[in-house]
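Extended Data, record Carboxylic ester hydrolase
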Amino acid sequence: MASVKLAILTLTICSVTGTDLPTVRVQQGTLQGTYFQTVWGKECLAFLGIPYAKPPVADLRFRAPQPPESWEGIYNATVERDWCPQRHVMANTYVGSEDCLFLNIYTHKLPENASDLKAAMVWIHGGAFKLGTGSSAMYGPDHFLEEDIVVVTIQYRIGILGFLSLPEAGIPGNNGMKDQVMALRWVQKNIAKFGGDPNRVTIFGQSAGGASAHFHLLSPMSSDLFYGAISQSGSALAPWAYAEPEAVSKAAFEFGKNVGCETNNATELHHCLLRQPETSLVDEASMKVQFVPTRESSSESGEENFLTEHPKNIISAGKFQDVPFVTGTILYESAFFLEMLSVTHTEDVVSCLRIFAGLIPNLPEPAEIEKFLPKIKSTYYKRNTTTEEGTTDDRLTLTNLGMSSTPSSLQSWMSSPKTVKY
């Protein structure tokens, strides 16, 4: 389906000469974009593969993103650039390049004056912080451009390249989140050139992208970079979206064993990982190790920290950005993950509930949880769970719960009237 969508966008790009193509001057230099026609027949402009940071290669691997470099002449923004390195979820093959910090901008027209600016929406892709892309192959702008807005899609480092944390080696972590911040800063400086209003930027995302949008509400690095946020089936409070530093460090050493970098020394591990080809960093065995956002220690180098406290503590202390926030789940999005639960349709829903009991707030100690599970089942899951259809529906409900980490409890922590649950 994704390839079909890409083909549609590719085939509807207008046939025009180079001199007819639109150009925009941004801080780094001049961009040349292209015209395209949406699936609904609307004529729009696209500026593709815009670099918002230096390529994070060589010594910049595992480092925080650096500001983009300027260029001479005209930058070709008519084609999309590489995905960040990953295993393609369908083909199970390596795709991408470490030189992947790009964004795409789609707009109806270039502004004629400063008052001719529209709201802008910045999409953060999902993929469990190990997969995904901002490419139109996955996330075309067609539906959004039915509205009078500007659309931006971004890419950020994922997996170990985006979330390695080795504080003892001077690698505090969260580089994938810092990539997103760098992209949002670029948007603030340049989006007006494309008709977008920097004071009306909304960030939104799904799954890990939804969790990312929520994380930005909690990070001082993201302050004043957006006006509102939408989290779709993702939350910074979800157990899959955050890990304590000890767990992330343990994952790094486990990963090292998989790629021939077995050691107990953080600096040695870092140096060994720097020597690895990017393909080995996303091979099938290595992808089983999960890297996600974590807490950072204060940096002696003066580097900005994205997150220094547990998300729940930040929310409880009221230290989040007070902007409009919409949160909720996407119906049956989690169908993709059903087999990962390793349960069959003949098993009781209670066994599934046991997996997700930790997501329910204010429960007693684990030993006390068991007695509540049959009551939860009888109250909320009244279908015949001995049938495949009944249990599949219940498992979908439960995995959706795991994706979003109960938006209703999230709302109780974030009591701002600007928070909306859907």
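Summary. Residues 18 and 174 are 40 Å apart (CA to CA).
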